[in-house]
Amino acid sequence: MKRKLSLFVVILLLFSIAQVQAQQKKFGLGIILGEPTGVIAKYWTSNRTAFDVAGSWSFSGENAFHIHGDYLFHSFIGVEKGKLPFYYGIGARLNLQDKTRFGIRIPVGLSYMFEKTPLDIFLEIGPVMDLVPDTEFHVLGFIGIRYYF
Predict the structure, then answer these.
(1) pTM for this prediction
(2) Which domains does the chain have, with CATH numbers?
């Protein structure tokens, strides 16, 4: 009898976890302001990893369009309400202007995910090492907000 009850409790617990996972929103879309400024999307692949991609414009004299994509890892900092992940990752950036540039990004950021609203706000710094056409180092940064669907 104890074995059947234990099995029932485990099945019930797994079902509850599956329901919570199904209710979590995995795709977010938002805006970023800074250098560069544009739109950003994020897709959570697990509780601690995600992909993000952005299309943005640089207005700091170069009038360039940036596209970047990153794979991110998250470490959560304990807070009373919501979630506060510190994140870091690796990705690539394409800078379209007179002289197209391609480089590697290593983004680092901090995000606050609201408890009852499907929003997060974040601050990110993204060092970029351009590899094509020349090797150059840049540091880009922005703040942003995303809504999760």
Answers:
(1) 0.81
(2) 25-148 (2.40.160.20)
